[in-house]
Amino acid sequence: MHLYNLTLKEPTAALHAVVGSFCGGRQQEILISSGVSLQLYRWDASGGVLQNILSSSAFGAIRTLAAFKLTGDDKDYAVVGSDSGRLSILEYDPKTTSFVPVHQEPFGKSGARRIVPGQFLATDPRGRALMIAAVEKTKLVYILNRDVSANLTVSSPLEAHRNTTIVHHVVGVDNGFENPIFAALEFEYDDGANAKSSEPLLTYYELDLGLNHVVRRWSSPTNSRANLLVPVPGGPSASSGDKDGPSGVLVCCEDHIVYVHMDVPQHRVPIPRRGRSSEDAGRGLLIVAAVVHKLKGGSFILLQSEMGDIYKVTVEHDREVVKCLTIKYFDTVPVASSLCILKSGFLFVAAEFGNHHFYQFVQLGDDDSDTQYRSSSYPTFGMAAPSDPLPIPSFQPRSLRNLVLVYEIKSLCPILNSQVIKVLPHADTPQILTACGRGPRSTLRMLVHGFDVDEVTNTDLHSAPNGLWTVRLKDDDAHDAYIVLSFADATRVLRVGEPIEEVQDSGFLVTSLTLAMQQMFMNGLLQVYPGGIRHIGLDKHVAEWRVPLDKRIVSCATNTRQVVVALSSAELVYFELDNGGKLNEYQERLALGSAVLTIGIGEVPEGHQRTPHLAVGCEDQTVRMISLDPETALQTISFQALTAPPSSICIVDMVDGSISNAQPTTFVLIGLINGILLRTVMDSIHGQLSDIRARFVGVGPVRIVPIKVQQRRSVLAISMRTWLQYTYHDRVHFTPLISERMDYACPFSSEDFPEGFISVLGTVLRISRIPQIDQILKEVEMPLDFTPRKLIAHPTNHLLYLIESDHRAAQGLSGATGAQRSSGEPGDHPSTVVWPRAPAGTWASCIRVSDPTTATTLNRIPLDNNEAAFSAAIVTFTSHEDTPYLVVGTASDVVMTPRSCSSGYLRVYRFTEGGTNLELLHKTEADDVPLALLSFQGRLLAGIGTSLRTYEMGKKRLLRKAENKEFPSAIVTLSTQGSRIIVGDIQHSIFFVAYKEPTNRLLIFADDTQARWVTAAAMLDYCTVAAGDKFGNVFVNRLDEVISEEVDRDPNGDGILREKGILMGAAHKTALVAHFHIGDIITTFHKTSLVAGGREVLLYTALHGTIGILVPLQSQDDIDFLSALEQHMRARFVSPIGRDHLSWRGYYTPVKAVVDGDLCEVFSQLPYSQKAAIAGELDRTVSDVLKKLEQIRIGACGF
């Protein structure tokens, strides 16, 4: 077995986020780390979206992220702390649209280790130095500077180690241009690992730039519950001679904020809390995120609590003397891992779970009625008794007042369960259904491959047209003036405006059908119809060319300067516009000898008189490239044989960095009548065609229409489905549109919709636009009340059944939560962010019936008696006429660590009302939490704690039939084929179990040689299982076929019982056949086919929102080629964080029998010289390598 790993969707979690001018200039960008990749976003005010301008895999674990700017520079650098053992400083390169490592300074071993720096990172606010620290002991300081060529330089590391010290947080202190100071929140212990003091220390480390060393300048005990440091602005102001602030830091403690600085009085204020009715009064409140923002007249700090509430903190000062520390409630947003404020007045919330929010500041909270609390209101600024708590003020959460939500970045994090089924009635491929989120921000999402299309308006034409165009009146017009519709014997011209209305004085011939419309150079309009060509000037003067009486025009192609028409006599007639604006016919005609079906001509390049090539598709299943150069006009350059007659041809220039970054690539797109789209690359000088690639678009002829998407040339391919070829991140992609079928389409631009297209289906005319092209999976969301635990689909009606449960959640408030989110904007009400906390030990849970096609809840059944649902399965009992039942595994009074419960239950429900309602038949008590359920040979197979049991249906309860109690920890996964069961243990990997019907025994006969913390598993065949563990690994184990046959031949299992165990386990061991490190915790596996008629792949979903596939390689040639390509990529590709690729993919166990497709895909991003060198060593051309990679990707997933 050999597998090929491809990531279909990068992780969408945001573990870190920083803001800076990474592209240079005044505009700021947001850099997000998902843990294993980097994404760069920029706010597009015109489109109202956050544009993803970069997405790059790090091929390593990103532990922390920061940004800095050298003094006087206009560009920010990104500095990354990772598991590579190196300090990585990255610079954005606009030429390659990627982050380029400027420096990669080694300092320790690779991996996430306690004493190896990388967990904490702090930069000097003036960009002069940075500190990178480990969890324990080690701290390194680097000096940042410029050389004589203005290039960034990094000094050798300066040590600031301190033994027997645990670091909680590190920040850079803003003290102007004095020696840089870094503040660390530390906890000391003695050699016996016992705490020396109950109080952590706030320590200042000063970098002496003159002596070039680091000293421990000042240290002071602080609150024992301190968890976060926030730097306070200081130093001289850039806009005035005053100070930006008093410097120092805010120490965020449980329920309090303390201002601390060297040799100055401390200030303390309490953190306001929600009203006691909506919070657990006995639980302290912590700050989890913070952001500092400087204004011309001062500064403010936003702090966020673990409840999602944001507080505005200001430090009132007179130069360097602090007068007062103030705090007030600001707004409530989702709990964030990072907060970022842009100078343009936006707040980015990188949410821990769910979608990331982008807000605009409406006001700064200075004029509202929220109470402000001041340190001066307390004795000695709140420090009279530092160890005693201050009176905690309260507030009532409200809807957003100071912020307004303007955009969301979709995030699947965390994916807890999923299904891959065909839900949509007219879809030819399955959809991915994911249960995501935590608490009231949980959602059920259906992922559909394709771009969403926004339909702006539609109108009925009362008759079906056979052609559609939009034209502008002048060269410099920004928007279209006319919409032209061609019918069987007439043409209608509509004026674009408010409203759109028909015009009669356009100058077009309206008594005949139209073959083409074109706005010509020198501000003229051109109409091609079967009887001739009509050239209309702005003054309505008409110049007309007519065909001979015995002939007619059957096809044509136009651009702003050239016109080519094909006559019914298989002749080509060529026209060209002269500098005076007159259309002149070329003196010769070209006889082709075969009827012309379609013609394609490209746009005239800027600064040129003509485009030099023409493509003609003929009835003899050929495409001929014809020269239009004056010296070789109408001469055939090359032929391309086809497998079917062509239906449409388009020549378009598009940017494709995989072919050339220097200039656009000329593509010739050929649509065939059998639904195949051919894409070839044309030599722009000689007109030769190469690199032919085929794609099935749909049943029926393919019609190709050039349009623009995000100001770049793109192409629509229309058949039974509509596809879009477009450029994204300088690479050409091909993605379907999720919209109604189209007969005809053309680009459209107006004042209200500057970039869109018009389409016709039958008699309906639609104006649409494509809002985004950064997500190839459309997400349809349905809000949930609690954290989803399990998602299953009904076998016949495709209804979905979800079980949800949450600890410390109030059952009575759950229904209102989902309703509020359904009726308002996400994040509009605080109850949608964090639910009120119930006492410890309280659970809220429900069973939900939903229809994924409409994203609606059909029924919701709450669970009582403090029961929480953890597993579910649809089971068919043979004793009850094969009627399906829903079995839900629940437990009461659950304690997760250590796992215990007062009682477990197996609830059996009957489907009623077509599956939309559930009737409880009975509950069967169990002695532990049922974590895994499965239908097995007409019975229920249940993993209850450490026991594996089978149950039969009874009248009042389930009847236990067989049991095995020999599993070491807890059963979390179950899979089965025939009489064989694969059991996943939470700590001890995979077990093979045989069910012997004559003796009614469940017998363990094989297990793994290595204990693994299994999170998901799936059977690949009767002897092979794939599983994932909690450390981000995926592995495939296989049982020897000889052993498998011996076990099956044993009818009673006596031979299994007599065999002696090996290594304190089963008598037989499985062999590891494949192993690969994903870098994310896999939650589900699905053996499925994502392409109609395609090969089966193993699809996996992971906790941080990752979706990927493992593709089985079917030939030795593919294995050899891809393995060799991977080896060359490892040697030539440099990870942005400096991580060794082989070590990363073999993090815990050496990688085995898996090729990293993500690394192979990076081949297209290399400079052409490196691509050519690698391809030469593989005895292939660059286009051959790219074509092979595309074939594997498209054949496996269709993406």
Automatic annotation (TrEMBL):
Q: Where are the stretches annotated Disordered?
A: 813-833
Domain called RSE1/DDB1/CPSF1 first beta-propeller: residue spans: 16-372
Molecular function GO terms recorded: nucleic acid binding
Where does the record place it?
Nucleus
Q: Which GO terms describe its biological process?
A: mRNA processing; RNA splicing
Q: Which GO terms describe its cellular component?
A: spliceosomal complex
Superkingdom of origin: Eukaryota
Task: Outline the extent of the RSE1/DDB1/CPSF1 second beta-propeller domain.
Answer: 454-770
Question: Which part of the chain is the RSE1/DDB1/CPSF1 C-terminal domain?
Answer: 844-1164
- Give a yes or no for keyword Kinase in this entry: no
Task: Tell me which UniProt keywords the record has, alphabetically.
Answer: mRNA processing, mRNA splicing, Nucleus, Spliceosome
Instruction: Look up keyword Nucleus and say if it applies.
Output: yes
The UniProt similarity line reads: Belongs to the RSE1 family.
Q: What's its job?
A: Involved in pre-mRNA splicing and cell cycle control.
Q: How does it assemble?
A: Associated with the spliceosome.
Query: Which PANTHER family does its entry note?
Result: DNA REPAIR/RNA PROCESSING CPSF FAMILY
Q: What is this protein called?
A: Pre-mRNA-splicing factor RSE1
Question: Which organism does this sequence originate in?
Answer: Jaapia argillacea MUCL 33604
> What does UniProt list as this organism's lineage?
Eukaryota, Fungi, Dikarya, Basidiomycota, Agaricomycotina
